[in-house]
Design brief:
Blueprint (H helix, E strand, L loop, with lengths): L7 E5 L5 E5 L8 H8 L4 E7 L2 E6 L2 H4 L4 H10 L10 E5 L12 H20 L1
Antiparallel strand pairs: 1-2, 1-5, 3-4, 4-5
Helix pairs in contact: 3-4
Length: about 120
Amino acid sequence: MTAEHEWHAIVITPTAHVRAIKWDTTSSTHLPALYEAIGCQNVEAVPLTSTLTAWFDGEGMYTQEASLPATMLVRAFRPVHQLYHGTTVITGGTDPVGNTLGLTEEQGKAVLEKWMDAMERLLQI
């Protein structure tokens, strides 16, 4: 892939710090990248759409602070039934064999627009 076609993931911290990370599309496993970005040893996937996934610390409810930015982002895509905790990573969906895909540029922009709208709503509370 050329530089203009790199895949990425979006990392959002509980303090609303947002950054993009490169997502290796040649890897058959992405767990180490998720563990490193989130700072955990167990992840939980929350589908946002059929082509977007939010990843959280699987034990975050017990070990991490609640993340209103992440909870509001999930809420922008689907109903929520809980607060989400800790840092989250947003990726694409999966390929036909189940490998996690990175975000395309279009998906990344759509996620960031939803996140900005969610943060605006949060600030109005």
